[in-house]
Amino acid sequence: MWPLAWIGMVACCLLSNGVYSQPGCGLSLTSDSGTFTSPNYPADYPNYSNCTYKISVTPPKVVRLTFTDFNVEEGYDFVYVYDGDTLDPTQLIGEGLDGTSIPDPKSSSGSFMTVQFTSDSGDTRKGFQASYTAEDKVFAQCEVGQYRCANGVTCIDAWRRCDGDNDCNDGSDEDASSCACQDIPSSLTICRGLEWGSKMTLPNPLDYSHTTLDMVTNSAAFTDLESLADSDCHPRVRELVCATIVPRCEASPSLRQQLPCRSWCEEVKYSCNIEDSWEAFPNCEIFPYINCNNIKTSMKDGVECFDGNGVNYRGNESRAPKEGTDCIPWSDDQSYIAEYPWANLEGNKCRNPDKDNRPWCTTPAGYEYCDIVPCNRYKFKKDTEPNRALCVTDDETGEVNWKTGKPACEVDQKFQLQKDLLSEDVYNKAVSPTTSLNIKAYVVNVISLDNMTCAVCWRAGEEYTIDCSNSTTHKDSRFLTCENDEADIVTGEWSGKTTLSAENNTACLTMTLKRDPTYHYATTISPCLILIILMIITFIMPIDKGDRIGFGVTVLLSMVVSLVVVTGFLPVSSTLPFIAMLIIVCMALMALFMLTTLFIIIIHDKKGPVPKWVRTLFLKHLARALLMGDLTKKLKKEDPTEYTISNKANDIERRAKADGYGPSIGGVNPPLNVKNEVGATLIGLKGSVDELKASVEQLSGSIDAMASGGDDDEEVGEYALLAKVLDRLSLVLYIVAIAVAIPCTLLIGRPKVSPS
């Protein structure tokens, strides 16, 4: 019985783990052709199937697998095909097969192939039927932009070679010998002085069989590519051609080959596709957009610019000039990222994913071109500096016009002065100046200054004399002269006076300027004063309300914002301006009194009597000084109960004596039992009086509560009264401190004038 029980237990365990004896499962097929099916085919296969079919044919033939019928539960049951006698996932040919569609034929790279079938505990289907044959090995003919693995039958994207991941089943795409970096020989003249270095790796994406540079230069397409590199269709076309025929190589263990980025190719294509030699260049779709080789953003006169149509522009411009707002991030509309994953759509930077004629971005108002300078499609006039306007030519009419709105400009005073004074018509370096110089000048504009007096002076040498002029010019009558040596200055918020003087061989144009403070008083200083006044509400709010602290903190934060705004429009100087210093002082006072308020709230909630000196000093005298009256009158008065009871007892005893219960006039004491009886009576009477007194007090309190409507049903604690006094004191001190801070701050912040 023991062996039978053991066998039954083992059988139950095997069945519970899904191991069945299934017909047609786990075959080893060694003939050069044959057929196999899933378990129970054409009936439904069982649950928990895990069948392996190992196929081997006569070398050097390869296995050709064809499915003639296929129906497995989609998403749950799978058929896996492996290249070789292995179940290694890296040798998997394609993905797991499921569903009802008959898969494409599969071929191995050698004479072995393994097929695995698995099913779960859910629904089952008819399964599959497959046949295999031994065929001669047919080498794959990979297309341009592909690399053929060493097994000869697998093609992968060329940019996946030497990228750190095994994309070929045999790992040949990451072979150290084929991924090694080589020097670009100097004989390849079109690729001298490349931006990214002098190392290359072969084969290139044009032909996977060109493993040496001689093969590359002797190819049929090389002559056309060389002509394309020498053309002027795009300023970076030479670099693109070289980056394709001799791909960049980095000495990195994970990433060694870097093909050109697709955006670079698309930009050059826009400018160069009209060239006959462009037909020799591959389709831009073969190039990657990650782990790729790209050039730096082009610059012109120190400003970012774009080449061609700007598809490869990777600068930081992110503002729409017409709308005057920042561009909307590309991530807000995922359709662009999904359609143009190669276009480097990062953040809200200006880009050109749809291959328009210049970089653009989206704004709340819609589509708008960015204000970026084109690198090689313009020519500025003589004696002018580059700007960000785009001037284009109409191909039909030949007229030129601004493509975008003309930018705001201002006079370059330095350039204009040099041009006026040092031009050939005015100044001749071969001729010495006259010994007498006449000065005339006027103020053109005030850009940004603080209240100040500024003197611009000219001094001549000993052999020359300098004086003010007595005449203006017919072109401009605003010049100051000896006769008219003063003029008022009014420009925007600035006003003042300018004076021309000449003495001691020195001529000076003195400007006294001041800023009109009305605007800043109304927009900046007034809100600060309002916040200072609003802080008083903190002391008016009930002490037992938690909103008091929150309100005070809000006002304090508003003052911080006001300080940031004020320091933003004030000019930067070595000393702190008066208004900024005043705001800082007021903020410090607010913070101090906020701490005081917190202390008062803590005192308010304290129970018990205050010390006698506190009651006298604060609740009586200080409260009167703060117009709160004598608060000690509000305190609960304690009745001398013992004294009252004692008096009541003495009265009763006197009455008892008067009634004959006390000692007689003659001095005869009453009997002892009489004394005891009288004492007991007195004690009982005393207790009754106490009970009557308590009842009367309780009744009186109830009547008072009903009469006052319940408003004064609780006595005010001594600490609560103390908190009210301190709160009123803080209010007075806050007002006084603010009133004193303004003149003190003005006095401290006044600039010191040295006696010299």
In a few lines, what is going on in this structure?
With 756 residues, this protein is of the alpha+beta class. Helix content is 31%, strand content 17%.
How would you characterize the overall build of this protein?
This protein is of the alpha+beta class and 756 residues long. Among the domains are: 28-136, Spermadhesin, CUB domain (Jelly Rolls); 146-295, Orthogonal Bundle (Frizzled cysteine-rich domain), CATH 1.10.2000.10; 439-461 and 484-515, no CATH class; 517-633 and 718-750, Up-down Bundle (Methane Monooxygenase Hydroxylase, Chain G, domain 1). Strand 9 and strand 10 form a beta hairpin. Helix 13 packs across helix 14 (672-708). The protein is flat and about 125 Å long. InterPro entries: CUB_dom, Frizzled_dom, Frizzled_dom_sf, Kringle, Kringle-like, Kringle_sf, LDL_receptor-like_sf, LDrepeatLR_classA_rpt. Residues 25-135 form the CUB domain.
How are strands sequenced across the largest beta sheet? 1-3-7-5
Count the strands? Answer: 29
Classify the secondary structure makeup into a structural class: alpha+beta
Report the sheet-strand fraction.
15-25%
Main sheet summary: 4 strands, mixed
Number of helices: 15
Roughly what is the average pLDDT, rounded to an integer? Answer: 77
Q: What spatial form do the alpha-carbon principal axes imply?
A: flat
Give me the Rg, rounded.
50 Å
- Fourth-tier CATH superfamily name of one domain: Frizzled cysteine-rich domain
Give the second-level CATH assignment, the architecture of one domain.
Orthogonal Bundle
**What's the CATH topology name of one domain?**
Frizzled cysteine-rich domain
Helical residue percent band: 25-40%
End-to-end separation: 124 Å
Q: Return residue spans where pLDDT drops below 50 for at least 5 consecutive residues.
A: 1-21, 379-386, 638-646, 661-668, 707-714
CATH class of one domain: Mainly Alpha
